[in-house]
Amino acid sequence: MTITSQSPKVSKNRSNSAHPLQRLLNYGSQYRQQIWQATTFSIINTLLDLAPPWLIGTAVDILVKQQDSLIAKLGIRDVFSQFLLLSFVTVIIWIFESLSQYAYDRIWRSLAQNIQHSLRLDTYNHVQELDSAYFEESSTGRLMSILNDDINQLEDFLNFGANDIIQISTSLIILTVGAFFVLPPSITLVVMLPMPFIVWGSFTYQKRLEARYAEVREKVSFLNSRLANNLSGINTIKSFTAEDYESARLAGDSEAYRKSNTKAIKLSAAFVPLIRMLVLVGFTALLFWGGMAAYTGQISIGNYSVLLVLVQRLLWPLVTLGEIFDKYQRSMASANRIMDLLDAPINIIRGNISLNVAQVRGEIDFKQVTFSYLNREPVIKKLSLHIPYSKTIAIVGSTGSGKSTLVKLLLRFYDISSGTITIDGIDIQKLNLRDLRRSIGLVSQDVFLFHGTIAENIAYGTFDATDQQIIAAAKIAEADDFIIRLPQGYETIVGERGQKLSGGQRQRIAIARAVLKNPPILILDEATSAVDNETEAAIQRSLERITANRTTIAIAHRLSTIRNADCIYVMEYGEFVESGTHEKLLEKNGIYAGLWNVQSGMKNLG
């Protein structure tokens, strides 16, 4: 067996104590150039958008002062020529304003799509690396809510919200600087008086809204979880006539979501009227005191006209802060959940030894292995097991004895608490995780088929398989006969989770999938537990063919399916209590013999 060393993959450490916006910016650092481009065009567009008030003020200045106007001081004294120049400048400004708007709109939206795409892929890929324990603690609905709803929520903010914040901030800076240059200091202070209150109120509002939208995102994840579970178990709901019960439970979750959203809406709706009153103070102060300053000659009528329009253009958009902060807090609540998922630690670390799967012999050793699930008593207790290569061993025992857990440990769905597991003498924790799993074929009791054709499901994991190879694998699994009788044959759509097929048909497709994979190690976890006798016989014939010259671990309740195994182990409470061939175990007249007598007796009664 050829082995090579690789650098282990280490997940990045992220600080989940940072503000969600900072965490999002850190993530989006790869798009820094695009962010700067979008920000620059947003600022340029804001500057150009504020030009019309100055153009209006200049026009008033021309009419009032004529040969003494601002443009006249540039050497153009004729009123007609002044208005001609002003018109030309207006056209140029309008053209560049339109171009800058197109630029920032396109870049922000493109950036939103890029970040959304990257986040969804990175988050999904990270989820795939998490161990099985994580999925036992997290609902599918919650994960779907993060991967879909929360990431889409960010898109809405990046499309419009980020640009709105930049443009309003730029406008306020220009208003403040412009007012100080044009107005007397006393008037400027009166006009700017509402600004500190607006800023303070905005940040206070943001903090209060943050907690409410975090609650909203949690409630929607509970709702999604309920919907996902109910749709998956719709036949169970129908068979137990539990439609009213489930409808009431869904109504409860939906009501909780509605109430949390209503609480956030109450706070959000109150913000705009309050800001409107503060804006009114600044505008009225300018209207009165600025008008008096123009009347007494402290400022020109043109400058007064500019400031009136400018304040109207700058202060009134502040009332949209409520909507902007609403989008912002919804997005930050979603960003927190996304980043927390990305921060979830990867406990199953890939090893640094690569395997050439074709050269794996398949000799397996469990040495003093102990394992317990989180906060539970050990399921496996100092268990040792030697499986020679190319041999078939079977493990039987009562439900909960730990049989299937051994399979999960071998595939490293979980890592052992103590001891070692080796394949061909190499500790599996040191092996490249993908190479380890490529070396093992699993046919489980709970067959999962993806929505797609039968051919696609057989070739799953062996994606470059030819049609001839797919058909050959199906024939070995004794699936070809029922497949060709279907209307579309191998192109028949199996439905979600394979619901259009019977349990026996799904089982044979799973076996064909394992045959096509052609692994050196094969695991059969209750592969015939849910099929009828005829299907069991067909599956048994196919298993006899595919287990030849291959290390095989068979876990079974039906003892008839494993009676020909090279060695049978009886497992109770995480330990092996008996072992031997079928005949020797019957001679011992122990637990195995008792199980065999019960099952064979039941068959005779039938």
TrEMBL record:
SUPFAM superfamilies: ABC transporter transmembrane region, P-loop containing nucleoside triphosphate hydrolases. It is found in: Cell membrane. Residues 364-598 form the ABC transporter domain. It is a multi-pass membrane protein. Gene3D superfamilies: ABC transporter type 1, transmembrane domain, P-loop containing nucleotide triphosphate hydrolases. Pfam families: ABC_membrane, ABC_tran. Residues 36-330 form the ABC transmembrane type-1 domain. CDD domains: ABC_6TM_exporter_like. Keywords: ATP-binding, Membrane, Nucleotide-binding, Transmembrane, Transmembrane helix, Transport. GO terms for cellular component: plasma membrane. The chain crosses the membrane at residues 79-96, 172-200, 267-289. One of its GO terms (molecular function) is ABC-type oligopeptide transporter activity. PANTHER family: ATP-BINDING CASSETTE SUB-FAMILY B MEMBER 10, MITOCHONDRIAL (PTHR43394:SF1), ATP-DEPENDENT PERMEASE MDL1, MITOCHONDRIAL (PTHR43394). This is ABC transporter ATP-binding protein. The lineage of its organism: Bacteria, Bacillati, Cyanobacteriota, Cyanophyceae, Nostocales.
